[in-house]
Structures are given as structure tokens and as C-alpha cells.
Amino acid sequence: MGLPIAVEEVTKEFRTDDGTVTAIEEFDFDIEAGEVVTLVGPTGCGKSTILSIILGVLSPTSGEVVVDGRRPYDDFYSFRGEIAAVFQEDRLLPWRTAAENAGFGLEALGVPEDERRRRVEEWFDTLGLSGYENAYPQELSGGMRQRVGLTRAYVTDPEILLLDEAFGHLDEVTATKLREDFLSLIDGGEGRTTTMFITHDIDEALMIGDRVLVSRSPGKIIDRIDVPEGLHEDPERHHEYRTRILDSLR
Ligand SMILES: Nc1ncnc2c1ncn2[C@@H]1O[C@H](COP(=O)(O)OP(=O)(O)OP(=O)(O)O)[C@@H](O)[C@H]1O
């Protein structure tokens, strides 16, 4: 069903040669178990920073993130297999085949090879990668590589999935197809994974999120929007929501 995420008054500052940069200021929101929340905003508004804190690779300067009574950055290894992330660059290992890359997380969790193969094959089938198990990343298109990255995350059956501009560098046709597949994946499951999806693309944020958080640089959340069901199939209403976000970012 996924675990809920509580982000409580989180501020993150970085020290630089010129002083201090505030990447995010008092981010405060909850993501319910199984909810899909998108965070949208222009470059430099703190999207990757908050994602890294939830993933547990960065600590906040003040405030805290609590998942299941634990803080990911204090207890990183206890979240192994529970939080998975997909990034803009696919981060596949070039010397591993597509199936070996996709099974990497399971391998780290000590899942036996037969079981790994079975689970990867199931996901490859769902994501249209069947037949490419033995291909190397450099033999695959950008969209296919990103599907391998998604498989690597999904195959561990995580409680929380974090996506950082995951479809951002793909051409529009491939990105649209991946978004549609991604939506049918998250809507198809009986127990939804709690998902945080960050993007600078307003249409993508509205299409994917149950709820959209809007952030402006320097990192401050300036709007929170509940997305009505089926919004992306209603161009007029979609336009209204898009305009609201654009206006708040001006
Ligand atoms: N390690 C760091 N050291 C210094 N400043 C940093 C560091 N990481 C991020 N920042 C600064 O914090 C701010 C927010 O960065 P962040 O990467 O979170 O933004 P973003 O919204 O993800 O941007 P983009 O869409 O370009 O990826 C920026 O001003 C950035 O320069």
C-alpha cells in the first residue's frame, strides 16, 4: 500500500564560497500512503534537494522528514528495498545487460537469481521490453533505457517511489507514451506505491499527480492543488489549472 511521508518544516541551506544558499525553505507537506504527488517548479526551486532528503542522501538543515517513524537520512540502510528512485539520466551500468541492470536492486537485497529473473521478466513484459533482456544499455533507445530504470525500481516492490525528471530528456512522443504507461501502472495496482514525481513540466505534473505542489525559487512552496479525476482528458479545465500554476509562478 505504500508508506506515508511527512515533510515537516524542512529547510536546507548549502554553504558555498560566497556564503549560504537556501535551497528550500520550510517545505511542509504530507504524502498519504499510495498517493501520487508531483512537485513542479522552475530550475533551482529545490526539487532535487527535497527528493534527496526523502531518499536519505541529504539531511535537512532544520525540520525533518518522517517515514514510518524513521528519518531516511538518519537510518538510510533500514530503507533498503523500501524507497526506490528513478532519475533523469538512467544510471544503467554499461557492462550489464538490460535484465542484469533491472535486477540490480534485487541482487543487492539478496534475492536468488531464479526469482530475480522471473520478476524482471514479468516487468519487462508489462513495460514492453520482452526480448531485450540480453541487450546492453548502449543498444537501447533512451525511452527503453528509462523503462529498464523503471523496472529496476518497480521490481523491488518499493513502499515509496521517487522520480526526478524521469521523462525529462526524452522526445515528446516517447515521453507521452511513458507517462501513459506509468499512469496505467500506478492506477492498475491494488496497493499503490506512494509516489513523488518532480518535474518542471506543468502539463506532466497535472497529468501524473493526484495533488500538485508548486514551488518557486528560492525553494518555497507557493501553491497546493488537488487534481480532479480525469483532468487531462478535459482540455478546457486542464488549461484553467495550467494557467493557475503559471500565474502563481509569475
Ligand atoms: N550541493 C550544493 N551546494 C550548493 N548549492 C546547491 C547544492 N545543491 C543545490 N544547490 C542550490 O540549491 C538550489 C536548489 O537546487 P535544486 O537542485 O534542488 O533545484 P531544482 O529545482 O532541482 O533545479 P533543476 O530543475 O535545475 O534540477 C539552487 O540554487 C542550487 O544551486
Automatic annotation (TrEMBL):
InterPro entries: AAA+_ATPase, ABC_transporter-like_ATP-bd, ABC_transporter_ATP-bind, P-loop_NTPase. The keyword Nucleotide-binding applies. Keywords: ATP-binding, Nucleotide-binding, Transport. It holds the Pfam family ABC_tran. The keyword Nucleotide-binding applies. Residues 5-243 form the ABC transporter domain. GO terms for molecular function: ATP binding. This is ABC transporter ATP-binding protein. It comes from Halopenitus salinus.
